[in-house]
Specification:
Chain A: Pfam families: WD40. Chain A: It comes from Cyprinus carpio. Chain A: One of its GO terms (biological process) is maturation of SSU-rRNA from tricistronic rRNA transcript (SSU-rRNA, 5.8S rRNA, LSU-rRNA). Chain A: GO terms for molecular function: RNA binding. Chain A: This is UTP4 small subunit processome component. The complex is a heterodimer. Chain A is mostly beta strands. Chain A contains 5 helices and 58 strands. In chain A, strands 1-2-58-57 form a 4-stranded mixed sheet. A 4-stranded antiparallel sheet of chain A has the order 3-4-5-6, with no helix packed on it. In chain A, strands 7-8-9-10 form a 4-stranded antiparallel sheet, with no helix packed on it. By secondary structure, chain B is mainly α. Chain B has helices at 70-113, 117-125, 149-171, 180-190, 198-201, 207-224; strands at residues 39-42, 54-57. The chains are: A mainly beta, B mainly alpha. At the A-B interface, helix 5 of A face helix 3 and helix 4 of B.
Chain lengths: 694, 229
């Protein structure tokens, strides 16, 4: 940990740079795009499933945490329902409203390697280890096993339905089979070549298969070839050697004119169905573009209308817009890499200098260090006492943690998994830590989507089903249920953000349907609802003095809503009228925390992954012609000039890969950084690539 | 005159003029039947490979080609083919014999391994002494399930085996993998601001390994008494 002195036109701050949160993202295993709702479902190696909203700046709308030994292998949308299958042999349906697993049924075929739904939305096919393709009928509330297709001798690694639903192509070991769905018999058996050299001794694994409506079957295999087969004759049409290692994933566009292939080397290759000679009708699949945006194996690719989305073992979701499909150059046409989750993993006990880090399987409580002396801006201060880890709390059971919080006084810790909620009392005097579990919890506190403590640590707010919030009071004697806050009307979507006011009177909740409800805690009734905005809320906070709710959205717009007057504030209206500066709106990572400075009521502190910003509401707003990043320029000016030149947005870009920023009562900032290089050193091994001049 | 036609060019490489009996491979000549050529067939006498026929072509621009009767050469060719087929048949029969003998051996070993017949018959006739309790008396608490230990471990092994399969195909032997440190160091080497390899620049990397090496060095020095004290 380092302490830096950050002094600029923004004000003087001592900064604790925290790098001891060893957050490790999990690799991406599968992608599934829903054309109608424009949502991208992402399955990770640790079993968690995330849903991104593709047209809302790829905001991570929903997260369903995973569990140990999950082994998820495939995802498939059927209408608006999401299904997954994995090596544990079961098919899982997700309840996307409440962000949890709805049910899991065993397919009784051994580990499942692939799951895919037909275009008609009536059936799901899974490919199993025992060589069977099992068909499940999708009913209104459940799926039901219908029948098996003819059992084969080797495992089924990949499946693809023909758009008509009458045939299904299966990629297996050393071969591809085409089945007639009605009879269940195999129509064709195409043998995949094992290639030359050392790969001859290993079986060729057909990792991915795509069935086009004109009868062409495209496969990607472990030899590194993308092969095109004809399903009428059962023969090979063309083969393209794409890479020396494996081609792991294929995806075809909606109108079947573009195909992308992801390889072990981390490159994505695009093939397009074009005619080689202008104005001639004979089209063929030609390799066009190569995208090198990954360093490790790409396990899944998906082609959405205007972009290619890829993800793999380097745990980043890369969205590469296809510039020939975009008409206007905007924020949507830039390359986007999503590294960190769009949820807070760090909570801070401001009054006692403690930080709680949320890992999938455990929690860590750290005490911040102390420094002494003053320094010049940008210098490192001498660290008097090192930060120390006080507590490591392991989760019982196999489920991963969904949310956690530490109370502002540092006396309570709470976390929730998909099935349980645990509350602990913490006693911390200088060198002794003791923690006791509160065993008698109110029955309603069984699982929470989001957790929040009141500012005086007397109450716990737990967001649960049907967009409601349970209130429990905390005292020496334990935890007692007080009441439930229910919205007057509206959706039942899960709440992902909670904000409590400093004076303990108000509570705001934001759910995945973009609804923000404000409740009066004294009457335990709904007070008002903020007008619904088209973009999701990524961070919100209630100002301690004015009780105004400040909201940041995924499209980088900001709103300030006065709770007591039930309307937007004048400042907020001015911002909307004037518009935000282009540089602010074009930022590609969302703001995850909104904080206020008690000593300076006109300041709002925000951060995203690459910057820290203090908005001074008393200063004029910048227009498009003003220099946006002007902190360095202001430093060189005199006091008089500074007053005329400065605008409301003071951005600091010193810190990178920021996970969380908090303001402590002693006017020091805590910046939790997780350098991407440190993550990169702990990823699985990459393929060795020979580069020129190395 | 048909005898002195130009020889058509060969499809593959012509052997040297030295009369070395070698396997030359199969020379494909499109020779019109009117042109007489001297072709000698050599079948291998050492191995019984039926597919290898050597042709050696002796050509000379000076002398007249010898006349060889077509019938004689035809019978020689047929005979050699028949010999090869016979040899293959013999080999097949030999292998068949070997396999039959092995199968017999396995049967006998299996017989030896099994318990004597009498003992098995005794088990069959012995009455079952175990009484199954009336199932309805036996009730479990709601949250409990009954599962055989056999089934549980079998299922887990299947998943583990599947994971191992994928691991070995992607990261196992035969794959060309490198370390993350090397990938990052290469990026630094070719990057805008070139710097030292990641293992040297980043102190945290391999910290435990470095500590272990340091400790073993200290131990070595102490053992060898390299530093006099």
């Amino acid at each position: 940990m380092m302490s830096t002195d950050l002094r600029s036109a923004m004000g003087e701050f001592k900064v604790h740079r925290v790098r001891f949160f060893d957050y490790m993202p999990s690799g991406i295993r599968a992608l599934a795009f829903n054309q109608d709702t424009e949502r991208m479902a992402v399955a990770r190696m640790d079993g968690s499933v995330e849903v991104f909203h593709c047209s809302d700046r790829f905001f991570q709308e929903k997260i369903i945490p995973g569990r140990e030994q999950c082994g998820i292998e495939g995802l498939s949308w059927v209408g608006e329902r999401l299904f997954s299958a994995g090596l544990n042999g079961g098919i899982t349906e997700y309840d996307l409203t409440n962000q949890k697993v709805k049910y899991t049924i065993d397919a009784y075929g051994g580990p499942i390697w692939t799951i895919t739904g037909n275009q008609q939305g009536t059936h799901l096919a899974v490919g199993c280890e025992d060589g069977t393709v099992k068909l499940f009928e999708v009913n209104e509330d459940q799926i039901q096993f219908e029948r098996n297709l003819d059992r084969q001798k080797s495992r089924i690694i990949s499946l693809s339905w023909h758009p008509s639903g009458s045939k299904i192509a299966a990629g297996m070991m050393d071969m591809i089979q085409v089945f007639n769905v009605e009879t269940g018999h195999s129509i064709h058996r195409m043998l995949a070549d094992r290639g030359a050299g050392t790969s001859r001794s290993k079986e060729c694994v057909v990792w991915s298969v795509v069935y086009l409506s004109d009868g062409t079957i495209i496969t990607g295999d472990s030899v590194g070839m993308v092969k095109l087969w004809d399903d009428q004759t059962g023969t090979l049409i063309k083969s393209h050697n794409v890479t020396k290692c494996d081609v792991l994933a294929l995806s075809v566009s909606q109108n079947e004119d573009s195909l992308v292939a992801g390889t072990s080397e981390g490159i994505v290759v695009q093939f397009q169905f074009v005619s080689m000679v202008l104005e001639k009708d004979d089209k063929e699949w030609v390799r066009t573009r190569t995208f090198r945006n990954h360093t490790h194996d790409i396990r899944a690719v998906a082609e959405i209308t205007t972009a290619v989305v890829s993800g793999g073992m380097d745990a980043q979701l890369v969205v590469r817009p296809l510039l020939d499909k975009i008409e206007v150059r905007s924020a949507a046409s830039a390359l986007r890499k999503i590294h960190f989750p769009h949820r807070r993993l760090v909570s801070c006990a401001r009054k006692s200098g403690l930080m709680l880090f949320q890992y999938p399987g455990h929690l860590e409580l750290w005490r911040l260090g102390e420094s002494e002396g003053k320094g010049t801006p940008g210098s490192s201060l001498f660290v008097k006492r090192n930060p120390e880890k006080l507590l490591q709390l392991k989760v019982k059971g196999e489920d991963h943690i969904r949310c956690s919080a530490v109370s502002p006084c540092g006396g309570w810790i709470v976390y929730s998994t998909a099935s349980t909620l645990r509350l602990y009392r913490l006693h911390c005097d200088n060198n002794n830590i003791s923690i006791t579990k509160i065993s008698k919890l109110p029955k309603v506190l069984s699982s929470a989507n989001q957790l929040c403590f009141s500012s005086d640590s007397s109450h716990l707010f737990s967001a649960s089903a049907q967009s409601s919030v349970h209130i429990a009071s905390l005292s020496q004697s334990g935890c007692k249920f007080v009441g439930t806050l229910k919205p007057k009307s509206g959706s039942h979507q899960a709440i992902h953000l909670l904000a409590a006011s400093e004076d303990g009177k108000w509570l705001a909740s934001a759910n995945s349907d973009h609804e923000v409800h404000i409740y009066n805690l004294q009457t335990q009734k709904a007070h008002c609802t903020v007008p619904v905005y088209s973009s999701a809320v990524t961070a919100m906070g209630i100002h301690p003095a004015t009780n105004c709710l400040f909201m940041m959205h995924a499209d980088q717009q900001m709103f300030e809503y006065s709770i007591e007057q039930k309307q937007y504030t004048d400042w907020s209206r001015t911002v909307q009228r004037k518009g935000l500066h282009r540089f602010w709106v074009e930022r590609d990572t969302p703001c995850l925390n909104v904080m206020f400075n008690p000593q300076n009521p006109s300041h709002v502190i925000l951060h995203d992954m690459y910057m820290l910003c203090i908005i001074d509401q008393s200063l004029p707003l910048p227009d498009d012609k003003t220099q946006f990043y002007n902190q360095l320029t202001l430093k060189s000016l005199t006091e008089e000039q500074r007053k005329s030149q400065s605008h409301a947005f003071k951005v600091c870009k010193t810190f990178k890969d920021i996970l969380c920023v908090e303001l402590m009562p002693d006017q020091s900032l805590v910046v939790v950084e997780r350098p991407l290089e440190d993550i990169a050193t702990q990823l699985p091994a990459p393929i060795k690539q020979k580069k020129f001049a190395t | 005159d048909s005898v002195h036609h130009r020889r058509p060019p060969p499809v593959c490489f012509v052997p040297s003029r030295d009369h070395i009996q070698r396997v030359v491979g199969f020379l494909i000549w499109r020779v019109p039947s009117s042109v007489c050529t001297k072709i000698r067939l050599n079948t291998f006498k050492e191995t019984d490979k039926m597919s290898e026929l050597t042709l050696q072509f002796e050509s000379s621009d000076d002398e007249l080609p010898e006349e060889v009767a077509f019938d004689a050469s035809k019978s020689v060719a047929l005979k050699s083919v028949k010999d090869a087929l016979d040899a293959a048949k013999r080999e097949k029969n030999l292998l068949k014999e070997k396999r039959r003998k092995k199968q017999q051996l396995f049967q006998e070993q299996k017989k030896r391994k099994l318990l004597p017949q009498e003992l098995l018959e005794e088990f069959d006739t012995k009455p079952q002494n175990v009484h199954m309790e009336n199932m309805s008396d036996f009730s479990l608490p709601v949250s409990y399930r009954v599962m055989r230990i056999k089934d549980e471990s079998a299922a887990k092994t299947l998943q583990q085996r599947a994971t191992d399969f994928v691991q070995s195909r992607l990261y196992g032997p035969g794959t060309k993998r490198t370390t993350n440190a090397e990938l990052l160091s290469l990026k630094k080497k070719r990057g805008a601001s070139q710097g030292a390899a990641v293992e040297f620049a980043n102190k945290k990397l391999g910290a435990c390994k470095k500590a272990r090496i340091k400790r073993s060095n200290k131990r070595f020095i102490r053992q060898q008494k390299l530093i006099p004290f």
